[in-house]
Amino acid sequence: MWRLLVFLLLISCVKISVIPLDGPDLEQFTGATKISRLVITGSQLQDVDPLSSATFAKSLSITGNMELANIDGLSNLAAARMVYIGANPKLQNLDGLSNLTEIQRNIFIHDGVLSNIEGLSKLQFVGGTLSIGLDSSLTNLDGLSGLKFVGESFILADNTKLVNLEGVSNLRSVGEMVIVANNALTEVGISSLVSIEDRLNIQKNQSLVSLKGLTSLQTIKGDLRIADNPQLCQSEIDGFVDRVEVLGTVISSGNDDSC
Questions:
Q1: How far apart, in Å, do the first and last CA atoms of the chain sit?
Q2: pLDDT for the residue 242
Q3: Which of 83, 86, 120, 176 could form a disulfide with 111 if both were Cys (CB 3.0 to 4.6 A apart)?
Q4: pLDDT value of residue 25
């Protein structure tokens, strides 16, 4: 016995209503173009196809759905204020978000087995935080090739197979950048990044050997922390610090002091 609990404020040209739903049937929401709040959790749903008319969501949360295989039903979603997708063990891609261009606040993609995030290829703007973490299958960020701006935090943490960041090829400015505990990551390659408005934290990446991918970075307006990356040569860190203007405090420890 399973339970789906969804709270929706659905807005169409003819109707505004608040609907509590306890059950698997999303069919009654067919035709809704705007969603104020949608939470789908703990369900046996395999798809969200009845939501195919939605173009905007104020808050969208899809978590802990054991049978969810795709979110293709969200393919008309162009903008959202907040998105949280996590712990859906059969969801291997985000292709259903292929028309999403703008996140007004935050997007969290956590605790997944995503083989790729190419469904985010049209995403250009994140006003708040973009966080990708605890993914056991993701090897690259090629799906973020269109991303140009993150207003607050860009967080990459505990992605066990993430090898490089080269797919983030158009991002020029970010509030803060946090790259922590991505144990397969060998280099930080965001060559388009020019400025970080707050801090840069690169920490506990066991395979990281190079910072050379940050070739365009000119200014870090907050603190710089590069710590506990056992294969990253201290001499490379020193060269990076000499080249980039850091307005805050520089903290460097636990890296490879032998080179």
A1: 59
A2: 96
A3: 86
A4: 60
- Quote the pLDDT of residue 102: 97
pLDDT at 258: 95
pLDDT at residue 8 in the model:
45
In degrees and rounded to multiples of 5, residue 239 shows phi and psi of -65, -40
Residue 251: both structure tokens together: 């903290």
Q: Cβ contacts of residue 10 below 8 Å, gap of 6+?
A: 16, 17, 19, 29, 32, 34, 35, 36
Give me the residues of the chain with pLDDT under 70, please: 1-25
Return the bridge partners of 22, or none. 5
C-alpha span between 53 and 78 (Å, rounded): 11
Taking a C-beta distance cutoff of 8 angstroms, is the pair 96, 75 a contact? yes
Long-range contacts of 156-160 (CB under 8 A, 24+ apart): 156/131, 156/132, 156/180, 156/182, 157/131, 157/132, 157/133, 157/181, 157/182, 158/133, 158/134, 158/182, 159/132, 159/133, 159/134, 159/135, 159/185, 160/135, 160/136, 160/184
Identity of the residue numbered 101: T
Gap between the Cα atoms of 6 and 18, Å rounded: 11
What are the φ and ψ backbone dihedral angles of 140, each rounded to 5 degrees? Answer: -150, 170
Cβ-proximal residues to 39 (8 Å cutoff; 6+ apart), any chain: 5, 6, 7, 59, 61
- The strand pair at 56-63 and 79-86 is best described as parallel
C-alpha span between 196 and 99 (Å, rounded): 27
Which tokens hold the place of 129? 């935080």
pLDDT score recorded for residue 196: 98
Question: In whole angstroms, what is the distance from residue 25 CA to residue 51 CA?
Answer: 11
Question: Rounded to whole angstroms, how far apart are CA atoms 214 and 165?
Answer: 10
Question: How far apart, in whole angstroms, are the C-alpha atoms of residue 93 and residue 96?
Answer: 8
Residue 16: predicted pLDDT? 27
